């Protein structure tokens, strides 16, 4: 198990709507910078955020019930076993972990499996197609054995492409964020909704891995920051349902091979295996090495 060098010191609250440009700048500081620069310049990446709709922070919260057709494809991604460490990725401009202003990790109630509603001063529910995420954590320093007792902090945008705590209209919400300990088989399970596709990014879910729940909730050291990618066929089925209309064009405008995070290897170690349908919901499974 390796530990990434990511301090959790509180910072002055900056302009949070930095979007794709911020993701690019952060990503260029990581291990894959040379590969990215070899293919295309920073200006070309930054230009991606100037088109499309549903950038994080541009719309307010939307409520309602998602419906759809009962049939839907399933898709397979990374297998249930791993033999390589998952890539380190940017946490993006909306982490909510204290590294970019607000910090939800020290709030009472953050340790929870159901992420669909805000907690604390609000109970607003994020509407969308149901999604269960099973993230199984393994230790690369121990033959990729399961890591019981670790903790996963998971967060993602809502079906409008907004991130709670940051985007306009949902600054006072904290839905779609939560921490779960890993079980005896190393799995942390979350109940949430399927995220939107916003301009310039492939549909994804952010996560941080900590050594324990105590570490996660006390600004402890992050073991791994990465992202889970969602399969195209499932995304297309979900985005055909009411409430996700703006995601259709955004998904069509990007691909795993062009996404600034997943483009170098097509998310081969980050693409979840997803089963289910739009009526009963989906289950996404991903096993990762840290």
UniProtKB/TrEMBL annotation:
Q: Which regions are flagged for Low complexity bias? A: 50-84
Q: Which domain of life is it from?
A: Bacteria
GO MF: ferric iron binding; oxidoreductase activity, acting on single donors with incorporation of molecular oxygen, incorporation of two atoms of oxygen
- What organism does this protein naturally occur in? Knoellia remsis
- Tell me the ranges covered by the Intradiol ring-cleavage dioxygenases domain, including all copies: 126-200
Keywords for this protein: Dioxygenase, Oxidoreductase
Q: Where is this region: Disordered?
A: 50-85
Read off the lineage from the record. Answer: Bacteria, Bacillati, Actinomycetota, Actinomycetes, Micrococcales
Q: What is this protein called?
A: Dioxygenase-like protein
């Amino acid at each position: 198990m390796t530990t990434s060098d990511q301090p959790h010191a509180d910072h002055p609250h900056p302009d949070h709507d930095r979007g794709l440009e911020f993701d690019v700048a952060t990503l260029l500081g990581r291990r894959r910078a040379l590969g990215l620069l070899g293919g295309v310049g920073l200006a070309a990446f930054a230009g991606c955020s100037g088109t499309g709709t549903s950038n994080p922070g541009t719309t307010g919260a939307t409520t309602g019930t998602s419906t759809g057709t009962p049939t839907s494809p399933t898709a397979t991604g990374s297998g249930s076993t791993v033999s390589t460490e998952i890539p380190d990725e940017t946490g993006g401009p909306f982490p909510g972990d204290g590294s970019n202003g607000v910090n939800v990790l020290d709030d009472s109630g953050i340790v929870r499996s159901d992420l669909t509603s805000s907690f604390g001063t609000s109970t607003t529910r994020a509407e969308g197609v149901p999604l269960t995420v099973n993230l199984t954590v393994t230790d690369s320093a121990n033959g990729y054995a399961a890591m019981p007792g670790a903790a996963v902090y998971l967060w993602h945008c809502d079906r409008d492409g907004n991130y709670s705590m940051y985007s306009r209209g949902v600054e006072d919400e904290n839905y779609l964020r939560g921490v779960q300990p890993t079980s005896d088989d190393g799995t942390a399970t979350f109940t949430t909704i399927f995220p939107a596709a916003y301009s310039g990014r492939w549909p994804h879910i952010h996560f941080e891995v900590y050594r324990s729940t105590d570490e996660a909730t006390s600004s402890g050291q992050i073991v791994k920051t990465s992202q889970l990618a969602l399969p195209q066929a499932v995304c297309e089925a979900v985005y055909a349902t009411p409430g996700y209309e703006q995601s259709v064009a955004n998904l069509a405008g990007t691909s795993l091979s062009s996404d600034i995070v997943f483009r170098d290897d097509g998310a081969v170690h980050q693409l979840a295996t997803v089963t289910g349908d739009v009526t009963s919901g989906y289950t996404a499974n991903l096993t990762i090495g840290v």
